[in-house]
Amino acid sequence: MKQNRTTIKVRYQETDMMGVVYHANYLVWFEMGRTAFIEDLGFKYHEIEQQGVYSPVVDVSIHYKKPVRYGDDVHVLTWVEEYDGLRITYGYEVRHEGGEVAVKGTTKHVIVKQDSFRPVSIRRSFPEWHEAYLQAMEPQA
């Protein structure tokens, strides 16, 4: 399965009073990883949106395993967890440089028309994107 690795340098403003990364910032990091993953597939979000569609998050799951602190260097691994032609679930792991998992999570998305927010079939409307997702889920040699 194809994965993207996005490096994050933890900034002071991302931490809370306890000195650890504020929980909602991981969702921002997930988005950074997802955007980089999509670019690795050969697409860009803004170009997709120019075609009259959005990709909203419809579900999110996040599990905190180990704190990340200011000054830490971590990376976000991103991949396609599930895809059925309509819904895409991305998987994520935030890992410390030594490989230890700090956070795991998923976000589920659909593609909707900008004007009506009605779902769009990726399989039918964006066949090149559909094929890229299928290939990304295949085992890597």
From TrEMBL:
<dbReference type="InterPro" id="IPR050563">
    <property type="entry name" value="4-hydroxybenzoyl-CoA_TE"/>
</dbReference>
<dbReference type="InterPro" id="IPR029069">
    <property type="entry name" value="HotDog_dom_sf"/>
</dbReference>
<dbReference type="InterPro" id="IPR006684">
    <property type="entry name" value="YbgC/YbaW"/>
</dbReference>
<dbReference type="GO" id="GO:0016787">
    <property type="term" value="F:hydrolase activity"/>
</dbReference>
<keyword id="KW-0378">Hydrolase</keyword>
<protein>
    <submittedName>
        <fullName>Thioesterase family protein</fullName>
        <ecNumber>3.1.2.-</ecNumber>
    </submittedName>
</protein>
<dbReference type="Pfam" id="PF13279">
    <property type="entry name" value="4HBT_2"/>
</dbReference>
<comment type="similarity">
    <text>Belongs to the 4-hydroxybenzoyl-CoA thioesterase family.</text>
</comment>
